[in-house]
Amino acid sequence: MFDRVTNPIYHIINTPYKIFDHLFNLCSTKLYLSNINQKLHIKILEISSEQLLFNQYKEENRRLRKLLHAPLKQDVKKIFATVISKNIDFYTSQIIIDKGISDGIQIGQSVIDHKGILGQVIVSNKFTSRILLICDFAHAIPLQNLRSNIRFIAFGNGYNQDLRIESLKNDIDVQIGDVLVTSGIGGVFPEGYPVAIISSINTSQDSTYQEVYAHPIANFHTLRFVLILKYNNHFIRENPPDIPKSVIQVEKKRFMELMQEFK
């Protein structure tokens, strides 16, 4: 009898508590879900921000993979470096890399990219080095015509300009499209590395010399990563032998690849 009387009263009294408890649980669940949603939103933003850089990482990876196939000889050690600064205008063509004396960089070492010769080290500090590009007016590089084996010197002619080859008589065998590689004379650049392709030949009846220009194979516009060639023994060859047939075959293959890229 007592239970029959108290149960309705208990139910009436307890109902607000049940409603409050239910609302509290709903609020707690909503707050929990809101926190989870916020965390997920932050995670999505983080992933999205990383995705924004995906193409850049993909491009860097492509360049690194190409760099690993750079035209290196087996007896040459390589030091990988990143370009951290450029000092490039019409009169000056220099870059600064993030490697220095502490990494084994020395003045005079050759610098290449995945296509060929870029320049040489002219200043080396503890942690950075300065590179003089082959297109700088102050630069000269001994070359050899891969087809005819004729040797000459090419001079920098300014950024975005073809290299200038001087003192070539009209009867010297050069043709547009000839691949020019390092001759090894002077002991700075190793022989056989691609440098440029002859782009124009101007002859004049009033002169016994022809004006020859060669387009650099290396791409100075997109320089990001470079390789510095480190030799166990310093080489000096005043009269280097002819380029080996194996090197000629490799360079001809690279020339055909370059022609496909130009197309």
UniProtKB/TrEMBL annotation:
Question: Residue ranges of the Rod shape-determining protein MreC beta-barrel core domain?
Answer: 83-230
**Which BP terms in the Gene Ontology apply to this protein?**
regulation of cell shape
For this protein, the record's InterPro entries field holds: Cell/Rod_1 (IPR042177), Cell/Rod_MreC_2 (IPR042175), MreC (IPR007221), MreC_beta-barrel_core (IPR055342)
Please report which protein family the annotation says this sequence is part of: Belongs to the MreC family.
UniProt protein name:
Cell shape-determining protein MreC
Q: Which Pfam families does the UniProt record give?
A: MreC
Q: Which UniProt keywords apply?
A: Cell shape
Name the GO cellular-component terms: plasma membrane
Q: Which NCBIfam families match?
A: mreC
